[in-house]
Structure to design on (285 residues):
């Protein structure tokens, strides 16, 4: 019997080591009094070297102790290496800043006990302790080595976790964020860091490639402190990658917007062109 259990354990570990799309960040303070962000979020990321696809996958949540209680489905997702996928979850009703262009806004949460679904909001993730799993199906995950558990994160005082210990507890301002790869040890793989929801280096591009007016900014690489707009854009807003609103304006076609006060780095610009929302990423050098 001992050899059989050892073999199963090795198979499970091998399956985890081949995972490419993993849980990259979990924020649980959304909407709590004193929080900046209005919503909890879960961010997925392809940490592999090849494009990877999820089909029929779910996000599942369980409290610090006991079984997983709720889940929601995910659309089919294809992520290139390094690409992230931002999922907007529930809120406690407060906060200041909305998440910027989440890839998925969850509006229906299903309950494993068969009770009526929760409609109009995402998962209400436990603030300091809990369990989150990325699963390959709607089957209830039983633990980190469940056959359908693609990735598993126990945090705070969770009774289940990958490896030697749970990830640390998030705070109102900080999320638990993956350090780099996936060693299948939550205590090692995650740290506390300022919440930084990313619609993805590539995911943001996917958003504006599907918008009614892609490339409404003519110089996505900004070298001279001025953004050049190819169209008249109302309600221009510039956000940091973490979702902080930095600047707001409106411009006419072929006008420029000076951003000399902004530090070098990536920003997300949103606005309205012909009464339709547009989004584009810029890089200031």
């Amino acid at each position: 019997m001992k050899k059989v259990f050892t073999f199963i354990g090795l198979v499970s570990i091998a399956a985890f080591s081949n995972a490419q799309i993993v849980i990259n960040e979990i924020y649980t303070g959304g909407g709590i009094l004193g929080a900046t962000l209005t919503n909890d979020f879960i961010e997925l990321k392809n940490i592999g070297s090849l494009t990877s696809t999820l089909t029929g996958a779910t996000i599942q949540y369980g409290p610090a102790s006991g079984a997983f209680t709720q889940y929601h489905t995910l659309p089919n997702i294809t992520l290139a290496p390094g690409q992230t996928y931002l999922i907007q979850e529930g809120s406690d009703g407060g906060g200041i800043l909305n998440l910027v262009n989440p890839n998925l806004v969850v509006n229906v949460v299903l309950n494993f006990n068969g009770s009526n679904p929760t409609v109009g909001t995402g998962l209400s993730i436990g603030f300091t302790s809990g369990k989150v799993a990325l699963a390959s199906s709607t089957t209830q995950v039983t633990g980190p080595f469940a056959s359908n558990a693609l990735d598993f994160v126990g945090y705070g005082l969770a009774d289940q976790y990958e490896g030697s210990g749970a990830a640390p507890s998030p705070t109102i301002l900080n999320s638990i964020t993956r350090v780099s790869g996936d060693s299948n040890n939550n205590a090692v793989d995650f740290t506390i860091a300022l919440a930084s929801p990313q619609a993805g280096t590539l995911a943001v591009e996917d958003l504006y490639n599907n918008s009614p007016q892609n490339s409404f900014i003519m110089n996505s690489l900004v070298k001279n402190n001025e953004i050049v707009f190819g169209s008249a854009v109302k309600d221009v807003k510039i956000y940091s990658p973490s979702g902080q609103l930095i600047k707001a304006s409106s411009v006419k076609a072929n006008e420029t917007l000076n951003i000399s006060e902004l530090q070098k780095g990536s920003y997300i610009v949103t606005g309205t062109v012909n009464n339709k929302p547009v989004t584009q990423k810029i890089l200031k050098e």
Notes: The longest strand covers residues 265-273. The mean pLDDT is 85.
